[in-house]
Amino acid sequence: MKIFITGGTGFVGSYLTKGLARMGHEVSVLTRSVRPGGDLHEGVSFVEGDPRKPGPWQARVGEHDAVINLAGASIFTLWTEKARRAIIDSRVDSTRNLVDSLASAPKGIHLLSASAVGYYGGREDDVILDESSFPGDDFLARVGGRWEAEAGRAREYGARVVLCRFGIVLGADGGALAKMAPAFKYCVGSPLGGGRQWFPWIHQQDLLNIMIFLLEHPHISGPVNCTAPSPVRNEEMSKILAQVLHRPLFMPSVPGFVLRTILGEFGDVLLKGQRAVPGRLLDEGFRFQFPTFKEALVDLLG
């Protein structure tokens, strides 16, 4: 397949780009500046352009069989007014411009558009959340709703749309695990708040496998939870991380009010979670390579 990717140079995107290219797909990565030296990997090329702005890059989208939309500023920051605007605009505006480019593209393009399990809102209960669950009403849930609505417009142009609700992506070279692991390596890691909040996660290899699975199963459309089948509570996550790193876990939990004082509203993201499960993927027979948190950590850190 010829695949067009936005956000293809970030932590998640670069892994997916290289993996798809290794499988023989032709991948075009949208980037604001084309780097000298050409490709990330054989089979990867760059298209210069800013997804937040209309431009000549939009004419290139229709040359592809599929589009993977990953563009979006990191949420792992203090949510100032400027940061909130960047979180919203980098997702909504980029997706709007991408979908607008499909108006003149051949019908039948596959659009796999990233979203997040934050769509369900921060939950402090044990309710299992699958793709049929109602959305939440906090900041990230509202962002997710607008993000998905923009992607959904692609159906008007004859595109097949899959809304990929990512859990926290675990990888060896960046992302959340790179932020968490050092504290546990130096024996100062600990649970956050009460430790009972759910942590929905996905190994980067399983996420790549999911993207391939979705491309190969064109009857699947609409929302798909891209999470491992076994979310863990924060306290259990901390114990497993310490165990895999062969470190003791003796530090007391970080009180919730401390996180909220330091991180503001973003602290609530760490103190609440979602018990999200990949209902549709399991129903369709997808098999996870790393179904448990410990298996994932052993692979990435062991």
Structure, described:
The strands form 4 sheets. A 7-stranded parallel β-sheet has the order 3-2-1-4-5-7-11, sandwiched between helices. By secondary structure, the chain is an alpha/beta fold. The model has no long low-confidence stretch (mean pLDDT 94). The chain has helices at residues 11-22, 58-61, 81-100, 139-152, 175-185, 204-216, 234-244, 256-263, 266-271, 279-283, 293-301, and strands spanning 2-6, 26-31, 44-48, 66-69, 110-116, 128-129, 160-166, 168-171, 198-199, 201-203, 222-226, 232-233, 275-276.
Percent of sequence in beta strands:
15-25%
> What's the main sheet like?
7 strands, parallel
Fourth-level CATH superfamily of the domain at 2-169 and 202-227: NAD(P)-binding Rossmann-like Domain
Tertiary shape: globular
Amount of helix? 25-40%
Average pLDDT works out at: 94
